[in-house]
Every structure is written in structure tokens, then in C-alpha cells.
Amino acid sequence: MKIAIAGKGGSGKTTIAGILTRLLAERGQDVWAIDADSNPNFGVTLGLPPESVKQSKAMPSSILKEVTGADGKATMQLAMPPRRVAEDFGTRVSDRVTLLGMHTIEHAGAGCACGGHARVRHLLSGILKEEGVVTIVDMEAGLEHLSRGTDRHVDMLLLVTEPYFKALETARRASELARELGIPRVVAVANKYRSSEDLAAIRDYAEKHGLELVGEIPYDEEIQRADLAAEAPALNQEHAAVGAVRRMVQRLKI
Ligand SMILES: Nc1ncnc2c1ncn2[C@@H]1O[C@H](COP(=O)(O)OP(=O)(O)OP(=O)(O)O)[C@@H](O)[C@H]1O
Ligand SMILES: [Mg+2]
Predict the structure, then answer these.
(1) For the segment 52-65, what is each residue's pLDDT rounded down to a tens digit?
(2) Number of domains forming the structure of the chain
(3) Would you state the pLDDT for residue 55?
(4) Are the C-beta atoms of residues 218 and 193 closer than 8 Å to each other?
């Protein structure tokens, strides 16, 4: 199963990707966590100390190679099996979780991140069911990954939205592009709702626009506390946001 998490900037993509990854690992599932954001935060949200996140390297361009087809056209493809990419270039977060970085912008004016997007796209296309891992991709804010087809090969796109119009509109636009791309399952999750009115507004918008709402995650102080302390949120006590992600996992039968 390959799941990409997308949505408007700051809606909670990385937070939800982190909790989801750790809940799956907790029940014995191997997870490859791909940080497809050029401003990477997945590592810290998974509980890696900020210092080791700084040292972890992105996947190099050598994971792809150019091949010339029978028609004489050159195309890129994976130069090694996905498991080798994970072993050679991944950062071990825990026994079950390996983090793979897409691209880090190290210098201003260094150009576009298209190489990083291509690496993630090809890696995702190469990861097969037989690998026995769940792959969780934390996407960059906005819609560029959909125009580049970075998430073309995922099984499910999870669109995170907050209770305000611009975030909901971003989820709606993303869902249309994702369907155009042929992603088999496109679903939405409400995050950071603070009242029954917030929740009702999201449900209403989702229903009107044909968005399947698979999770409802409340605003939770524990998430804020953990973020400020550069830690992963606690999973052991039943915090409201973690509990809501657990229910979402059950509902999605991941
Ligand atoms: N359910 C929640 N309750 C409280 N705070 C939350 C919740 N979900 C996310 N946050 C907070 O919202 C902020 C943005 O979250 P996060 O970084 O996960 O969003 P993002 O969509 O990945 O952002 P970006 O677009 O920058 O990648 C963070 O400060 C995070 O701690
Ligand atoms: Mg993020």
C-alpha cells in the first residue's frame, strides 16, 4: 500500500503522516516514510532528533539511470531495486521505519526541485506489493506534485483540510487533479477542528463536492506541545488527535 498525504500549507500533512507511520509501525508493519517536501520536517515529526535530521542525506540522482528505448527515445528509470534505495540512502528511524528524503534546498537560487520529484515518482512506481511495506509520502504544500505526477503511482491520496474555505478549496482542486492522474482512491481528512460548527462546515463542503471524509482530527494541545519541543507527539496516552488517526486507520483498513 502506497499512501501520499497532501493539502494546503500548514494543514497538518506532516503531523498526520508522522502519527500514521508510527501507529502502523507500532502494530508491526514496516514503513518507508518518504519526505517529498524540499523543506523537510517528516524526520522530526517521526521523533528523530533535529541534529540527525540535519545529517540525513536526500536520495541522490544516481538512484535513476537513463535508458534508450527501441524508439531511440531516452527515458529515466530506477537504477536499483527500491529496497536497495531504502537500505543505502534511508535513515533508520526505528526497527520498523525508514525515512527517505527527496531533496533539500541548500542554496538560494539553486534551481528547481524537479530532479527530486522524478526520484520520488520513479521510486514509487518501483515499489511493489511483494515488498511487504507500507509507503507513506509526505507531500509539499499545494498542487505542484500533482502537475508533475510525483504521486501518480500511489494507491491512495489523503487530502488534509482545515475548517476554512481556502484549505477546503485546495483539497477539492487536488482531488480533481488526482482523479485525472488516475490515483485509485482519493479521500479527505478534516484536521484541527475546534467546534461542532467547524466539523459541520467541513462535512457539508465534503458532501457537496463529493469528497469522502475518512477522518476527523480535532485541534489537540499535545500536537502543539510536541512541535514546540521538536518531538514526536506521544502515542501511549490517548490524546484526541492520535485517537482520531487510530480510528481513521481502522476505517481505511490499512
Ligand atoms: N490536530 C492538530 N492539533 C493542533 N495542532 C496541529 C494539529 N495538526 C497540526 N498541527 C500544527 O499545525 C502546524 C502545521 O502542521 P504540519 O507541519 O503538520 O502541517 P503541514 O501541512 O505539513 O505544513 P507544510 O505545508 O508546511 O508542510 C504545526 O504547528 C502543527 O503542530
Ligand atoms: Mg509538512
Answers:
(1) 888 888 899 999 99
(2) 1
(3) 81
(4) yes
Q: What is the CATH number of the domain that holds 154?
A: 3.40.50.300
Bigger pLDDT: 209 vs 105 = 209
Q: How far is Cα 49 from Cα 45, in angstroms, rounded to an integer?
A: 9
Average pLDDT, the chain: 94
The residue with cell 457537496 is 208
What pLDDT, on the 0 to 100 scale, is given for residue 105? 66
103: its cell numbers: 531533496
Of 34, 223, 228, 247, best ligand 1 pocket probe by most atoms within 8 Å of the beta carbon: 223
pLDDT at 104 over 80: no
Determine the longest span between alpha carbons in the chain, in angstroms: 60
Residue 99 within any structural domain of the chain: no
Q: How far is the CA of 68 from the centre of ligand 1 (A)?
A: 43
- Cβ(171) to ligand 1 under 6 A? no
Report which ligand 1 atom has the smallest distance to the Cα of 244: 1
Q: Examine residue 79 and state whether it is found in any structural domain, yes or no.
A: no
Nearest ligand 1 atom to the CA of 140 is 27
